[in-house]
Structure formats: structure tokens, C-alpha cells
TrEMBL record:
Belongs to the bacterial/plant glucose-1-phosphate adenylyltransferase family. This is Glucose-1-phosphate adenylyltransferase. Residues 308-411 form the Glucose-1-phosphate adenylyltransferase/Bifunctional protein GlmU-like C-terminal hexapeptide domain. Residues 17-285 form the Nucleotidyl transferase domain. One of its GO terms (molecular function) is glucose-1-phosphate adenylyltransferase activity. HAMAP family: GlgC. The record marks 68, 107 as: Could play a key role in the communication between the regulatory and the substrate sites. Homotetramer. Its EC number is 2.7.7.27. PROSITE patterns: ADP_GLC_PYROPHOSPH_1, ADP_GLC_PYROPHOSPH_2, ADP_GLC_PYROPHOSPH_3. InterPro entries: ADP-Glc_PPase, ADP_Glu_pyroP_CS, GlgC_bac, GlmU/GlgC-like_hexapep, NTP_transferase_dom, Nucleotide-diphossugar_trans, Trimer_LpxA-like_sf. Keywords: ATP-binding, Carbohydrate metabolism, Glycogen biosynthesis, Glycogen metabolism, Nucleotide-binding, Nucleotidyltransferase, Transferase.
Length: 422
């Protein structure tokens, strides 16, 4: 095989294109007013910050973000937190809402169409390579390693893949590969997933990350746009076509996952359900969490409000401001309340005699005196009345709030308002 290696990082000639239009309906009320990539995560960040930070940390300085569903809070976050890239340094950051640029009656019809409708913008920057990313997963990954594999193999497309137990792959697009990781077939959500050669109990599931040569991708998108039977989707249309008619390789996440000294696994999460979202946040309270957000070598960049420090006050039995195994963000005041294995975003106020246990509390919530909240998610701006108890009576919780299959209560302000009206 010809030597495709080149001087300097490939990321210099690469654009990252983030698909961030997801509705995220399985997150229930958390996505009533915001797209899934804009949902808060980890005390300070939004979910999309992980894909964007991976791109920046990998050396990619041209980024486009395609938005669609309820995008205002996402666009506002991007404008505030990601406006540091400068055209004068051959950098760019474009927010690309669905704006009916191709047809007056057509929004983004699918993931491939979300790229196709902006192909002229992409081609104007003339990146040699393009990395297509999902904006709604939590992980740390060096895309430069995946780009290097793409160049070395001369692939038409390289697909990021997770190694998962074979029967868990029924919910993913699955790669059938040979011994060299060349993809011989791509199957969407198969009932009997193909295994990795030599590893009968393991399958390769698509992460929704694709590397293309930009010129090749443009050709494929134009071909697909002319096909009236296409659903305009990478997983359903573009990738199966390239696998059949071109050269496709799988790139395993384990070969490019970024770990600090404190991390011991290949952490990747789709936080697309209430239970998964709650668990991934609460996992951060572990003594040694699987995801290290304190890693200075691979920071998770975001927009952060300028805030005063967190404050803990009162020191009486039953009325002591204290936090155990918890993350507490700036501008929080714990005034005589206690929290255990909980995560508080910016600006939370917790009043005397209240208790939070395994709670994910989004920005600017107010916890009333004597309230008890267990195993719950409080949406932004929720005011918990004095003495209210959440998470101790499953039947009562289910009648008042959104209670997940895993027993997590999702609480919004409108649900609280209905309590007072009733």
C-alpha cells in the first residue's frame, strides 16, 4: 500500500461538522425548551461541549454546527462560549441553523441533508478532510488518531466504532469487518449482530462519527440528494452505499480514547434517557469517576458565567451547610442544608434543614426549608416549596412528576406550579 503519511497534523486540514439538531424526546421535559446537545451536564457544561472540546483539543480549528430543533439556548451558548476562533488565524466557527437554503419548504431532512444543505459553505473553506460528529454524546477522543488511520488506509470513509457485547449492539448500526477492520457490511439495528473476527461475543457499533475526504463526501451528498428514495441519512443511506461501492474502515474508540492517569476505561455515554442522564451526572461524584473532568491535558471547554464562589453557612445540629461526595458549582449557597452524592449547577440556593440525596440540580434552582429530594433531576429554575418531599413515595411521585423506569424523578417548575393549584 502506498505511504499516505504527511508532515504535520492532519487536523490542520480538517473541518469538524457537528450534527446538533437532535430533538432528544427520550429526555422528556428536559428537551421541552432546548435541543438535546444544549442540555446541561457535569455542573458547568452542555452535552455538545464534549464533541467541540474533542475537536479543539485534537487540533481542529474549523468547526461547523448544524442546529434545528429548539435551537435558541444552544445557539446562545455557542455564541457565548465558542466565539474565540478567529478567521485571521485560518480558524472558523459557523452556526448553521436549518434555514431553507435549498428549498423554501425544506428543513434538514436527515443527518446527511444537514451537511448537504451547507456544502457550499464547507467547500468555500476547502478543508481536505471532514469529521462528522454527533453533538449529543459524552466522551473524550483524539480525532487526530482517527484521521491518521483514514489517511494511512486510503479509505473513502472511516467510521468510529464502539466495541460492545454482541447482543447489546441490537440498538446500533453494526459493522461487519474483516481481520484488517475493513467494513464488509453495515447493518442498522440488527436482531442478530455480526461479531468481530476472533471475538464471537463482541460487536462493533457505530458511534455516529465519520471521516471523509471532503471532495468525496460532496460527491456522495450530491448523488444522494438526487435519489428520491433516499432518507438523507448517513447511517441509512450514505454509509451503506460507500461500504458497498467503495472502501470503508472501522476505527475502534479504544485506540483513540483520551484518558487521564485517573481514568481506567473507555468512557462513552449516550445520555439520551432520563435514567442515563441522571446516572452519568451522579457518576461524577464517585471518588475516582470513570470520566475525569478535571483533566487539564484535555479540558472540556464551555461558556462559564462569572460567579462568586460557592458558600456553606450555619453549623448547628440538623442545620449545617455541608456537602459529601458532591459537586457544587459557583454562586451556590448551601444555607444550613446538606447534600450527599449530588451535583449542583450554578446559582443554586439550598435553605436550612433541607436534604439533597443523589440529586442533579440544574442552574438557579431554589430548595425550600425542610425539603427532602432524593434520586431526582430538578430542571433549571425550579423552586422546591418548603417541606416538599420528592423521591420517597413512588406512587405519589408518579402522580406529581415525571418518574422514570429507573425510579428517577424529573421535576419542572410547571409540575411544582400544579401542586399549588391543586
Amino acid at each position: 500500500m502506498a505511504d499516505h503519511r504527511r508532515a504535520g497534523p492532519i487536523s490542520r486540514d480538517t473541518m469538524a461538522y457537528v450534527l446538533a439538531g437532535g430533538r432528544g424526546s427520550r429526555l422528556m421535559e428536559l428537551t421541552d425548551d432546548r435541543a438535546k446537545p444544549a442540555v446541561y451536564f457535569g455542573g458547568k457544561s452542555r452535552i455538545i461541549d464534549f464533541a467541540l472540546s474533542n475537536a479543539i483539543n485534537s487540533g481542529i480549528r474549523r468547526i461547523g454546527v448544524a442546529t434545528q430543533y429548539k435551537a435558541h439556548s444552544l445557539i446562545r451558548h455557542l455564541n457565548r462560549g465558542w466565539n474565540f476562533l478567529r478567521p485571521g488565524r485560518n480558524e472558523s466557527f459557523d452556526v448553521l441553523p436549518a434555514s431553507q437554503r435549498v428549498s423554501e419548504d425544506q428543513w434538514y431532512a436527515g443527518t446527511a441533508d444537514a451537511v448537504y444543505q451547507n456544502i457550499d459553505i464547507i467547500e468555500a473553506y476547502a478543508p481536505e478532510y471532514i469529521v462528522i460528529l454527533a453533538g449529543d454524546h459524552v466522551y473524550k477522543m483524539d480525532y487526530e488518531i482517527m484521521l491518521q488511520q483514514h489517511v494511512d488506509t486510503g479509505a473513502d470513509v472511516t467510521i468510529g466504532c464502539l466495541e460492545v457485547p454482541r447482543m447489546e449492539a441490537v440498538a446500533f448500526g453494526v459493522m461487519h469487518v474483516d481481520e484488517k477492520n475493513q467494513i464488509t457490511a453495515f447493518v442498522e439495528k440488527p436482531a442478530d449482530p455480526p461479531s468481530i473476527p476472533g471475538r464471537p461475543d463482541t460487536a462493533l457499533a457505530s458511534m455516529g462519527i465519520y471521516v471523509f475526504n471532503t471532495k468525496f463526501l460532496a460527491e456522495q451528498l450530491r448523488r444522494d440528494a438526487a435519489d428520491p428514495s433516499s432518507s438523507r441519512d448517513f447511517g441509512h443511506d450514505i454509509v451503506p452505499y460507500v461500504v458497498k461501492h467503495g472502501t470503508a474502515y472501522a476505527h475502534t474508540f479504544s485506540s483513540s480514547v483520551v484518558r487521564s492517569e485517573a481514568e481506567y476505561g473507555s468512557y462513552w455515554r449516550d445520555v439520551g434517557t432520563v435514567d442515563a442522564y441522571w446516572q452519568a451526572n451522579i457518576d461524577l461524584t464517585d471518588v475516582v469517576p470513570q470520566l475525569d473532568i478535571y483533566d487539564r491535558d484535555w479540558p472540556i471547554w464551555t461558556y462559564a458565567d462569572v460567579t462568586p464562589p460557592a458558600k456553606f453557612v450555619h453549623d448547628e445540629d440538623g442545620r449545617r451547610g455541608m456537602a459529601i461526595s458532591s459537586l457544587v458549582s459557583g454562586d451556590c449557597i448551601i444555607s444550613g442544608g446538606s447534600l450527599h452524592r449530588s451535583l449542583l449547577f450554578t446559582g443554586v440556593r439550598q435553605n436550612s434543614y433541607s436534604v439533597l440525596n443523589e440529586a442533579v440540580v440544574l442552574p438557579h434552582c431554589h430548595i425550600g426549608r425542610g425539603a427532602r429530594v432524593t434520586r431526582a433531576i430538578l430542571d433549571r429554575g425550579v423552586h422546591i416549596p418548603d417541606g416538599l418531599v420528592i423521591g420517597e413515595d413512588p406512587e405519589l411521585d408518579a402522580s406529581r412528576f415525571r418518574r422514570s423506569a429507573g425510579g428517577v424523578c424529573l421535576v419542572t417548575q410547571s409540575m411544582i406550579d400544579r401542586l399549588s393549584q391543586g
